[in-house]
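To assess whether ligand presence alters the predicted conformation, the chain was also submitted together with pyridoxal-5'-phosphate. Input:
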Amino acid sequence: MGIFEVVHDRKNTRSVKWDMLETVFQSGDVLPMWVADMDFQAPEAVNQALIERVKHGIYGYTVLDIEVKASIVQWISRRHQWQIEADWLSFSPGVVTTLHMAIQALTEPGDSILLQTPVYTPFYDVIEAHNRTLVRSPLVYNGDYYTIDFHDLEEKFKQGVKAFILCNPHNPVGRVWRKEELEKIAQLCLEYDVLILSDEIHCDLTFPDYQYIPFASLSEEIADRTITCMAPSKTFNLAGLQASYVVTSNQALRKKLDEQFSSQGFHGLNMMGSTALEAAYRHGEEWLDELRIILAEHKKYVIDQLETNTDLRVVRSEGTYLFWIDCSALELDHKQLNKFFIQEARVGLNSGFQYGEEGAQFMRMNIACPRTTLEEGVSRIIHALKS
Ligand SMILES: Cc1ncc(COP(=O)(O)O)c(C=O)c1O
């Protein structure tokens, strides 16, 4: 049996996805296909590196040495053809933490921060928590796929936007922004003097035929105004180890960000996080390539099944393992929709409404689970809709 087919019991492991069902769905009887982690074990090399570390048994203060940094530099160069320098790296327990730090370090209270909605919920929280002003530039949905309304984006920039939190690839709509799109964004950011906080946490998880391009790799000029947030956590299922990093070539921006981290008492990563990060980047490539094939097969299965047997539409996804399902044919409001999936279908999905009002007719489904789990979830949905 392949490693991605094994069903692991995650209950009673303090798993947010599996052990918080009552809290989140008010039901213990749902199949969890929500929060963005995978029901797969990390690559064996990661587990072995952690076991070796534990065998040593001493967990003192740990330095992030050049070997860890080199593993990141080489990974990004090998996988994404972006040549970065070790000195450009800052470390953070998570991408969301970084966004909180960056907003505080690089913008002022009241500043306008732009989001392309619907989008990952914590982006809104970051803006609100630090009393910045949310500016929305809704993505355009054509019934199949999302694109950027560049006219709207320019209009919003014209009104004075300090920073833009870009999501590339985009959660939840699954777009892997193309070069022409990124170039147009870049040109507008230069013209209207906008800083870019680019969340690229899903960058390794693209479907075949879609090429992720790091925003900051477009040009030196654009790198100069970009903070790029990355991590091995989505790619290798390491979210609980809390290890991420930031790439900033602009020394002045990096200094401000680093000062913000240290003024809040953050220094480096925990030892287990850095051990896993390095092992994943040095030895996880084969595992990742296999995972991407499995996810592509899952994608095909979900689209085939849901679109043949129900009136749901699965938005054409180019990356991430999070599927954005158009439920508008059911003609339910977002509360009824959520209730239907919990009580009738008995699957725990994320309500699309939490990503912005544009998501009210959508649900987000996590397909990163063994095929049998996926089939069970999909068949519960089909069965509920048919009855
Ligand atoms: C776009 C995006 N950014 C950030 C995160 C979370 O990152 P972290 O756990 O490193 O804060 C997620 C998790 O789902 C995500 O989808």
